[in-house]
Amino acid sequence: MNSPAVEHSFPALQWKTLQRRSIGNFRLFDAEWIKRQHPINGDTAEFLVLHTPVWVNVIPITTAGTVVMVRQYRHGIDQVTLEFPGGVAAEAEDPAAAAMRECQEETGYCGSPSTLHLLGIQRPNPAFMSTRCLSYVWYDCQLLAAPQWDAHEVLEVVEMSPEDVDRHIATGQIQHSIILAAWTLFRLHALPVEHGHGGSDG
Questions:
Q1: Same domain flag for 96 and 138
Q2: Residue range 157-181, pLDDT digits in tens
Q3: Most exposed of 39, 91, 99, 135 (fewest Cβ within 10 Å)?
């Protein structure tokens, strides 16, 4: 599958990295101070940057054309959210394999590896995070097994039409930014569900 084009380089705006100072590992991320030099006036400052493993999420489309989503509790906002399955790629794990694994573990749905397509790459918050999130669509998924949740997971698996996903977004019932971004990529780049699988991967 084709990789999405990266943003163009702008040398005149690029800050020069002078020093990196590790703060430590905090389970979900590594933190460091990075000293950088202003590209125009030469001033220097330290900036906090968080590094995480690669994130993935996947939009599973069933053979009936419905979208598989999960409801789960999120500690950061103390609320239940509606999301696409996803998670963190293990060290050296292929992101596509991680997306399929997370989908099967969280929902029990899966399809053929040949019907998984990369929609795009997100940068959730480049102001202070180096994180990449890869979003996929997986066509022709079927419920083939019971979900296998992690010890701290409890989820509700739901199916809905693409139009229902649109309505949930329009009414503010879906607010998770990387879910909104994934759905935007799907709507922009994937073939309509009613036309069958084979969404564009570039």
A1: yes
A2: 999 999 999 999 999 999 999 999 9
A3: 91
